[in-house]
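Escalated from tier 1: pterin-6-yl-methyl-monophosphate holo job.
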Amino acid sequence: MTLIMGAVNVTPDSFSDGGRYLNVDDAIAHGLRLRADGADILDIGGESTRPGAERVDPALERERVLPVIRELAAAGAQVSVDTMHASTAAAAVEVGARIINDVAGGLADPDMLRVAAECEVDLVISHWRGHSDDMYAHAQYADVTRDVVTELVQRMEEAAAAGIPPARIILDPGIGFAKRGAQNWQMLRGLPALVGVGPRVLVGTSRKRFLADLLESGGGGPATEQRRDLATAVTSVLAAQAGVWAVRVHDVAVTRDALRVAEAWRS
Ligand code: PMM
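Tier 2 regenerated the structure:
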């Protein structure tokens, strides 16, 4: 069964849920609720990666995420830390995180691979070409799927050289990162090629702009959160059918239901 990673953004400006859980207690309560809803992993982040978002100082980022990670890990949750900073990743592992989720795939911080190797935890390597403020300038591909696979294989080789075996690596196509609308759909259609590389694959489509654009172009007015969550449940089912290991979502309950329906159909 495909695993569900529930996103907990402890940020004032995240793409979809920014500002809602900036308070530590609210973020912990939200994480516990996502776990009760069926999240297998809780992904805690303190820096928004929304297009155009400002960078966050690592010390402020740690202040936001460490108390939340500590508490959720102590409650028995499997926790990942969503960070591009090696210092935050190391501190998060110390308080109980077991997965480092680096949306920059090790490219933003030269210490990230060394820290992940030393900590002996799993590492999510996402496809990334630049920070949010100018990522669309890098959205140029000869063939999105082929280029993303090639670049992720390079990142994996760098990780292996740093001492991280493929069994501890999770690859992520970085939906919405340096990719425009149609490029995201092309990448999703090409997911089997990424799954074929070997390591586990994680996909995050949740509430992203390309889904909202699609919904709005079909009518019905603004793409509300509810509409985006339904769209996310559908893309998550299709990703599961393509063989991914896990999907990263905000509304765990609706995706859990959708995955169960698809599983019943299949089995
Ligand atoms: N997307 C966001 C944040 N973290 N991590 C991984 N591994 N993959 C993603 O696609 C991903 C991520 C952006 O979403 P949010 O800020 O709305 O939660």
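The beta strands are 3-9, 41-45, 79-82, 99-102, 122-126, 169-172, 200-203, 246-249.
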